[in-house]
């Protein structure tokens, strides 16, 4: 038996142990118990032991002997190891009582409670060597139990204790060991979890030893910083800065670890292809040579283009995508500077800028640089960074993160358009609005909120501020001009786009889609667990940041309401609203904590309010970790899968496809057709889009031209096409490739090894 097994609850709670035969050595346990009873009884009779010590020891020694007898007699209840554990706890009661007396007499317990509640006033206890030793011993034992039950090395216990208490100790604080106090929550959770106590749903995480250890460690680090700073206001500002640095560092790690190594599908592929075409060909239009054959055969053209592109022009064979071209400026520049690696890192980089913009917006909304404002800004960055959808959308080269960045900048600059620099900020706000429109057309609906922010100055509404609106509008038109010119050239009018999505908008869908969107926002990984702070934040913003709140709410209502008319609304379409929701939640958290301090100073029951603060901080900490636990673990466990995102292994499969096929090969596929062309360098078509007769005519024409045809079985939609091709030509499996396999309905995909087939019969003359 390993020594750390003595610290594991499952070892002591093993119910099967009493059924196992006990060896002769078990008589030693009986003898030890009997000897303990005799010696303790003698000490009590002679007055050498007090009743407060002797009685628990007598009970403990008796239990040791009884468990030994139970094992020898194979008694199902008396022979459980749990009796020995209870004996050890009972024997430790006198020592624990004396330790509590020492801790209380030295004022150490009071210091720990003040630290938990962040009560100003510093250390008041003496913290003698006996109190310090008792406190260290308690935490060393408790941490060892937690680590043993997690299966982690026990030497981490003293290292964690040193890490938590080092900062205040180096600052010369007598109460440095008070930073260990929150770890007691992890000990309690570990015991309850080991005893089989469970809570429903996500709340069971409250009793998770790992989760509570993370929460307790963060809580302890906050106390350590607070003690080291002397409970000064600088602690809040420094803590906010550290929180921002941690959020950015984690986001950078996640972006590097989980970044796409390739793209497929529809919009992820199309956004990447637009950038590459802009960088290499000077246009976002893409050529589709196979469309010429479809035109010549008078077949439907759409199966010769990749999903997300429009029908190519018959003369040039070039086509535009259905999405705005603005993001191609970012992906194209990244591709020119750093090649394919830059293409897939530009969105994580923009995500870091978007997080900084979210924190900056919180400071602008506050209107002043107070410690509370910095705390709100730091929390805003952290809450935005740990939203699951935020992490998912930074991993593929799509426009949602960039739209979020320029949305926040546009509104923040408009709110900050005060004083002498107001015209410049109004112009910059307009430029950001125009860029946001270039990236996502619907961002033009930000205009009313921005106009309101510009007209409504710090001193109220002023007619003179209408000039700022004109400046902003002119700058927005300037930024939007390249995209409007693109519309004119490609579609014949600056106000005609390549999208046909307006056909999917309907007022009848508003209740259903609004409910779905709010439900998605209310998921525990997004903002569901932050609902109470959001309500408090709304009330606080109505009192202290009314102008920022009204502007943000106007943007939210207009844009959310418009998107809720869309039949295929997804949460990522609302990603630009996340920083504003994070700001309100952060404001609610800071307001609630400050209100508890305010009440304690003006109340005649400071201890009650201190206990309330401990509960408040603990509950908020648990909710924040419950919300972010899965998201934070993503870079470590690689638990990530998103539409159009290719892992390194999947990207390598397209390199293998290039090696397995000749340069002039044509490959049939479903939603991987764009990736086949982009990453494998082979022309691709989508056979599922044709009837059987049209498919045969197209393939016969390819074979007559001497082109080898392959088919990748990468989706349920390929079933009928494969049946037709197998019956007409025969199929020979060439390889199995690790690529996304797409469902017929919904566009979802699964990871599987898809077979690659070659048409087996040779081309016949005259085909």
Low-confidence stretches: none
Average pLDDT number: 89
Radius of gyration, in Å, reads 33 Å
Largest sheet: 5 strands, mixed
The helicity comes to: 55-70%
Number of helices: 29
Q: What percent strand?
A: 5-15%
Q: How many β-strands, per DSSP?
A: 11
Structural class: mainly alpha
The general outline is flat
**In whole angstroms, how far apart are the ends?**
77 Å
Written description of the protein model:
This protein has 29 helices and 11 strands. It has helices spanning 9-12, 26-45, 51-72, 82-105, 108-116, 129-150, 156-170, 183-194, 209-228, 233-258, 267-281, 290-296, 328-366, 371-385, 388-393, 400-415, 422-439, 447-455, 466-491, 510-521, 531-544, 546-563, 578-602, 606-632, 634-637, 648-660, 673-680, 692-704, 719-728; strands at residues 262-263, 286-287, 318-319, 456-457, 460-461, 645-646, 666-668, 683-685, 709-712, 731-742, 749-759. The strands form 4 sheets. Strands 8-7-9-11-10 form a 5-stranded mixed sheet. A two-stranded antiparallel ribbon has the order 1-6. A two-stranded antiparallel sheet has the order 2-3. Helix 16 (400-415) runs parallel beside helix 18. The longest helix has 39 residues, at 328-366. The termini are far apart.
